[in-house]
Each structure stands twice: as structure tokens, then as C-alpha cells.
Amino acid sequence: METTFPRLLLQHAAQRPADPAMREKEYGIWQTHSWSAMAQLVEHLACGLHLAGLRSDEHMVVVGANRPRLYATMMAVQALGAVPIPLYQDAAAPECVFPINNAEVRFAFAEDQEQVDKLLEIRAQCRGLQAIWYDDPRGLRKYSEPGLQSLDALIAAGKDFATKNPTYFRTQVEKASPDDVAAMFYTSGTTGNPKGVVHSHRTLLDRAHAGAQFDKLTHKEEVLAYLPPAWIGQNIFSYAQWLCCGYVVNCPESTGTVMIDLKEIGPTYYFAPPRVFEGLLTTVMIRMEDAGWLKRKMFHAFMDLARRVGPALMDRKPVGPLDRLLYAMGDLCVYGPLRNNLGFSRVRVGYTAGEAIGPDLFTFYRSIGINLKQLYGSTETAVFVCLQPDDQAKADTVGIPISGVEIKVAENGEILVRSGGLLKGYYKNPTATAEVLTADGWYHTSDAGFLDAQGHLKIIDRVKDVGRIRGGANDGALFAPKYVENKLKFFPYIKEAVAYGDGRELVCAMINIDFDAVGNWAERRNLPYAGYTDLAQKSEVYELIKDCVEKVNADLAADERLAGSQISRFLVLHKELDADDGELTRTNKVRRGYIAEKYQVLIDALYGGKTEQYIETQVKFEDGRTGSVNATLRISDTRIFPPVKAAA
Description:
Among the domains are: 5-271, 3-Layer(aba) Sandwich (Rossmann fold); 466-637, 2-Layer Sandwich (GMP Synthetase, Chain A, domain 3), CATH 3.30.300. The chain is built from 21 helices and 29 strands. By secondary structure, the protein is an alpha/beta fold. The strands form eight sheets. A five-stranded parallel β-sheet has the order 4-3-5-6-7, with helices on both faces. A five-stranded mixed β-sheet has the order 12-13-14-15-16, covered by helices on one side. The chain has a four-stranded mixed β-sheet with strand order 2-1-11-10, with helices on both faces. The longest helix has 22 residues, at 293-314.
């Protein structure tokens, strides 16, 4: 698209100034910001930042939750030809040091006291950081740090400048080119320092527009912005596509009110990673287990019908008149109230991405009339590479290449992508850029997969993680750890899993239970426990998890290529894997290599034939304090199934 983000804002403000652009919930009340109000706010912020000394091509950090003033600050930075860098609001202070120093950041926006404290803590390590503006003043009244100022003061100064220089802002906006750098997003850094992914206005808007065209999005959509703005997925949905389409973005009051706000807004366009959909379904199933006998029986009867009929209706396939009638009754009694309770009554298009979603989970949502689909993309591709058409949503693929995308599969099975949404490069890292971008414009995704007969892309695992079993009966068999882990996580009782087996005779796994789901399961069986560590090591819980593992093994046995990846032994970890402890990335991806080093004693015990192993682990609490968790972990053997031979 031959435009920029600030130009699109001014275009919307001119065409429909009074229409709502964003809503923000404060003290339980939704506050509406019109397009003209947003344009005025951005102008005042841009003028204020100009007075403060922000110059073209400089970088400015923004850190906080989804807020209209956060997005307005990003756009004000872009209006001056500078580059906003959103950082994760839940990142520990030391994690912010590298991006700030790498990008030579002088100015920062901090949402509240928590983010201000974080930046002040690392200020000695970030010598270039001169000024910090905060949005929420609560708790900051007696702070007297040099360079610390309220955003209100910046806006007031900018307003005064704009009054005296009424053409300055629009002149700056018109100077910008679509090929100018629009934003920089730091990767999660699973194998080292994060890399700054540089995107232009053109690349981000190209993919935002292609995605909007694919799903026929209009200015009438309602979106709930509740995931981290530092994640490019949220940025595309609540910023790039917001400006492409002109729809309304709603910002919840807090993470604790998201479910309430979801029901109040009733979004028409919704996105969530699988873990959110898993959590919602777990909540539903827990409530149903606690419901009366009649309600449970009706729920399960209609859900059996929904699983059989619902996906066919969503895919516009023929369904018999009796089934249609029964489904309509189910919609009246169960599916409709359930969608309403989840906040999905008005969802026209729903997406999940980031991790594979379980077939049962995927089918559940589509069977009750929610148009849930999968997409494929990454930070480097500006998200939109493959999307699923409404009537071609499959649980085991991630959709078809959309407008402007080319895909090819390398000899080693790696997916290569070429599109108008590819990164300009990694900031100050030409070596890493050359590794992923070819001279003729192909991007190496590092994902292994293939295109099926219908042109849908199927992802197996990361190329570097796909290995082979060595020795024993399965010598040479394919091992795809992420594929195995995702199958385990399809069960509501398993929250996270880490599988090992490359170069070994057998596959072993370390598992995190879902504390809420297993806790409810235990309470219904009058099984007492004193917290996560105690519950995780109960023999009854091990039997529960063992049953899940063996079901996965039976499923793997039916796949000739992956039958050798069946899990021989497992243990349940004594603590939940946590990004603060370095075990997960900020986007909740497993750091398998780091975990292997940290829990080497457990891996040795799994492969050494032990039945239990003592371990003590240091953990970091939310307030920055450290402590330790120790336990003697059980190790359980599981049943391995003979491969099911394909019919001749």
C-alpha cells in the first residue's frame, strides 16, 4: 500500500471524525476515543516529542499493556519519521537492557509505576536512556528522577507548539515514505540475544491489507486487544489492520477483567493462541463437571451431536434435515448460551496461531458454531502467510497461501516464503539477515512441512528440532518433538510438555500438569493436596497423566512416519515452566535447549532407568525475589504400541 500509518489515521479522521476508533475501560466504564480525538492526540504527542528532541530514524521504546495512549505514542513516533519499539510489559528488567542498548534508545514510554521502576532499575546499564514518560500517575507522585515526566505534560507542551505551528504535524506526516522503517520488533531470543526485526510501513500494511481482504473485514468489526503489543500478532490485529480497515479496537481494563470485557464487547474479529482456547474449554468442562445430573446429560448429548454435525455445517457440507433440526435445538439450549458465556456470540472470524491446536479443541469450537480458523506466519513475515478459508478449516493444516505469497519446500523439508511482507532485515545484524533472506527474496522460515494435495500447508516441527531415533528397534525413525509435545498438550490436564529423543534409543518427556484442571479433578475425588508440587507427585495424578501419554502413543503408532516417536518414560515436573525462570520465551514457547541444561539430572534419570529423582530448583517470583522448590520426582514407564501398518 502506498501510504503510511499516520496518513491512514488522518484519512479516517477526515472521513468519519466522530466515529469510535478505540475504547478503553477505566473503573468499569468504557471510554470512547473518536478518530478525530485520536488524530489530535497523536498530533500533540508528536509535537511534544519533537520539542523533546526525538529525531527522524531514532528509536523510542514503548512498554505497557494495550492502551489508546500507547498506540497514539507509537503513531506520534512514526509521524516524526522515528521508529517505535514495543517491549513486553511482563519482561523482567534485565531483559530490556539489550534492546534499549542495541537500538541506542534515548526516549521511552512507560505505562505505569511498574514499567517506570523497571526502566529506572536498568538505567545505569542503559547510559543513553535520557527521558521516560509515564501514562498512569498512580504511585509516582513522589518520584523525582531526572528525565521522568508525565505523558500529560508532554501532551500539554505539544498542544501549545501545535497551536503556534498548525502545519508542522501534517508536513511531517507527508514527508514519510511507505518504505521508511515503521517499527521494530525484538524476537524472543530462544538461542541467544533477541534480534530486532525491522519492518517498513509497506511490509506491515501489505500483509494487514491482504489479511483484511481474505476475510472481508470492514470498519464495522469490533476487536478486543488483550495480548502484548510487543507481539507482532497483536500489533497487526490492533494497529495495522485497525488503520487499514478503520474498525474499533477495545482495550480491557486489566488482564483480570479480560473475560468480563470479552462478554461486554462481543468482538466480531477475534484472535487468541491455543492456550487461551484451551483455558476457556477447561473452564467450561470444570463447570459442567460441577453441574447437576440433568444439565450434564443434556450437555454431553448435544455436544456429541455437535461434533458429528457442527463442522459439516461450518464447512457448508450437506447435512440431513433431522440433524439440522436437532442441531437447531442444541443451538437454542446449549451452543448459543455457551457462545454467549464465552463472549463469542458475535464472532464472525476467529483465529488461532503460534502453536498447533489440538484437533479435539479445534473441532469443539467449530462444532458449536464459532468460525475458528488457523493461520501461519511469523514476526519476519508480518504474520499473514497462510490463512484458512471459512469452509476449509482443517485441524492439521495452517491454511493456504494468501494473496501476494509464494511458498516452496526446500530439499530438507524447510518452508521458504516470498511475499511483500518480509522484514527489511535484522537490525545491526547483516550476518543473521543473510542467513534467512536469499538474494532472490526468499525467507527461510526454519519450519519443516509440506503442502498437501489441496494446497494447504502442514507444519511438522522446526527444521533444527526434527531428529532421528538412534539405536534399538526404532533406529533411524523420525522424531519431531514439537509434534509430540502438541499432542500431549491437547489433553486438558497437560499444560506444557518437553520431549527428548534425538540421537537416543527412546523418547522421554517432562510434563507440566494444568493446575486448575487437575486440581478440580482431584477435588472431585476427595484427593487432598498442598499446592502444585504436592499435587504433581500424587500417584493418582501420575496414573491420570500416564493414560494421556498412552493415548498419544496409540495415536503416534497409527502414523507410520512417527510411530518411533512414542514416549517410553515420563515424569511430572515439580514446578510450572516459567518465562521468568528462562524456561519459556515471552510468547510461551519452550526453550528446549535451556531446559535440557537446567534439568540435566532429570534427563539422566529418565534415560538411566531410575524410578525417582531428587531435584532442587531456583525460581524467581513476580516481585523479583528468588527462592527454591525441591521434590523427589517419580518416573513412570508407559506402554508402547506396535506400528499400525497402512492398508494395502
